[in-house]
Amino acid sequence: MINPTTENFKCLQWNARGLTKSKLEEFRHYLSLVNPEVALRSETHWNSGFAPKFKSHVHILRKDRPNRLGGGVAILISKSLQYSPITHNPPDTIEAIGASILFKNNQHIDFTSIYIPRANCETEDIEAMLDRSNPYLLGGDFNGHHPLWESNATVNKAGKSVYEALINDQC
């Protein structure tokens, strides 16, 4: 196990819109080209009967939808990293999974993969995800539209919630 430095660390976020068998080889190829230490995945569409393997990322944290198709989040972590899972208790409007990675300076950085399927989360829901004692990175499909990140966007509820949570958290 190694503890990386923040200077050479690579993290990938990919909205899969279904990382089923047909898309798996494409993703594996991309992983081999980019070689990130951590890959955040949203909308995996995985279920308990599907267990993909990745050569360079043997640690796979995932949260699948138990009772219906779609959704799902995952974090692929390089086999060389020390990590611990993060317990998130998001509301029903958010799917999330997290890991805390140990860096060389004995500092942890928390990584969370998020999927908000219906764009109807509340500001407090996002704020709860930002309530971390460690530095953090959230990546995912928020289904939020706002002019701050899309110049021609019409603001929707998720976009307003994400924006307000970031302003309140002073990001």
Folded structure, characterized:
The chain has 171 residues and is α/β, with parallel strands linked by helices. It has one domain: Deoxyribonuclease I, Chain A (4-Layer Sandwich). It contains three helices and eight strands; from the N terminus they run βαββββββαβα. The strands form two sheets. A four-stranded mixed β-sheet has the order 1-2-4-3, with no helix packed on it. Strands 5-6-7-8 form a four-stranded mixed β-sheet, with no helix packed on it. α1 links the parallel β1 and β2. α2 crosses α3. The longest helix has 14 residues. This is Endonuclease/exonuclease/phosphatase domain-containing protein. Pfam families: Exo_endo_phos. GO terms for molecular function: catalytic activity.
How would you summarize what this structure contains?
The chain has one domain (11-169): Endonuclease/exonuclease/phosphatase (Deoxyribonuclease I, Chain A).
Which key phrases capture this entry?
single chain, 171 residues, Deoxyribonuclease I, Chain A, alpha/beta, 8 strands, 3 helices, 4-stranded mixed sheet, catalytic activity, Endo/exonuclease/phosphatase, Endo/exonu/phosph_ase_sf
